Amino acid sequence: MIKVKVGLRPIASKINLPTVLKTAILPGDSKERLFIATQVGEIFYIRNSSIRTFLDIRPRILKLGASGGYDERGLLGLAFHPEFYYNGLFYLHYSAAGAQGPGALSESFNPEPCDPKTLNLRWMNRETQYDHIDTIEEWIIQSNGWPQKRRTLLNLRRPFSNHNGVNSLNFSPETGKLVLTTGDGGSGYDPFNLSQDDLEIAGKIIEIDVDKNTYIMNPPIVTRFNELPAAIQEALTVMAKGVRNIPGISFQRFYNQYIKYAGNVGQDLVESIYSFVDYKPRPVTQLIQASLINSEPDKEGFINFGWRGWEGDFPASIIRDCTNNQNLDEKTMAFYNEAAVLSASRLQPLTSYFHKDPRPDKFGGTALTGVQAYMGKRIPALTGSVVFTDLARKESQPQVRGALAYTIIRPNGKQNDFSVIQTDYDFGSQSAYYVNLGTNLKQTRLYLGVYGSMKVTDLHQGTVFEIVP
């Protein structure tokens, strides 16, 4: 693949940790503006090279970083309705204040293939044993220009604090529906295998028909589809399952259809980027009906990323240090039966990168943080490619540096390698975690969110860049 070098042009600095970067045209405006959502609950936009506040929901967000500063909750999703310029509708996903619990397990989870109990755990006492509640809301810009909450679409009880998705709301240009990526609920190894259970909301990519007005302003707090009122069930379809944690979904127009890109954050081995064109979403009502009559839903055309049996191209593995050699480790298959069942039906990644990679032109990854199609012409070597970011290169200590890379779809549909994108920006002695990747409406510009710390409680250490030739 072609080696590419780009520049980074600062757009906004000294902001809090950015979780969403995307553009929209405000009602009554004439230009596309870059919007920046921060994890702590602010939404800004750039106008005439200055940062302006669009919305501040910090009082609605639960307290972040209470156990050491690192946190995966907060304001996680922002999406503008395709007709936003005319109707002023936009959508938020965030972790709600005043709704915290003790978590679903009293201790950390580690699967043990020799102990069946660890392979078949169930989430019990869900009303009391949970970590927090995520809410997905519809907002509208009023005639005076101020945003106001219009209704709540979903209230989701989450078992653990992590794996809630990031950049988790995006509209599909193909169906016009709001796409929600939920993550598997957290901990590690998906303790309750929620991602493969058809009735669990966790671990799925869900389409929401927001044009179906259910008139349910405050839906119940749920974890499973069958707990929702019928009117909400009818507005939902499941696009994919087997998801561990996804930093959004990107749609790339290809003639009269769309290529969908989504990355699945790995456990300990590998980070994976997936692509698919054709898919057959399952109406939630069909999934519930199949469960009631104890039948298997039709799997034809249904996308399954394979988690928790598979971590990308590998059966999910437990990694232990070798006692006699600290330079080696032992990898044990965590869920053999699940890996076998899903071996033929799972979607294979377009490309993968590893947490340990000996190749001189690659890097050791930490966590995938963004996946975006690029259709611009200013960086010709990237035109038509999919660009992705990793939080922190393993070899970049003591000053942390994130990673930027790209891959392309082969005409024969086979898996492809990737190439690291070099950047010319000097971060000096400051760490630079690459926390988010965004684009404009036509996917001709790319935006990179960088933070100087892993802790959301270390405030005002963020910079948003445009990736330029």
Structure description:
- By secondary structure, the protein is mainly beta.
- Helices cover 6% and strands 38% of the residues.
- It is built from 5 helices and 31 strands.
- It has helices at 84-87, 116-119, 230-233, 284-292, 336-342, and strands at residues 4-15, 18-24, 33-38, 42-47, 50-56, 75-80, 89-95, 132-141, 147-158, 169-171, 178-181, 204-208, 221-222, 236-241, 249-254, 257-264, 270-276, 282-283, 303-304, 310-311, 314-315, 317-321, 329-333, 351-354, 368-374, 385-390, 403-407, 419-423, 433-439, 446-451, 462-468.
- The strands form 7 sheets. An 8-stranded mixed β-sheet has the order 25-26-27-28-1-31-30-29, with no helix packed on it.
- The mean pLDDT is 95.
Supply the key terms.
6-stranded mixed β-sheet; 469 residues; 5 helices; mainly beta; 31 strands
What's the end-to-end separation, in Å? 18 Å
Parts with pLDDT < 50 across at least 5 consecutive residues: none
Structural class of the secondary elements?
mainly beta
Main sheet record:
8 strands, mixed
Q: Say how many strands there are.
A: 31
The whole-number mean of residue pLDDT values reads 95
Spatial order of strands in the largest sheet: 25-26-27-28-1-31-30-29
- The number of helical elements comes to 5
Name the shape in a single word.
Answer: globular
Radius of gyration: 21 Å
Percent range for helical residues? under 10%
Strand content: 35-45%
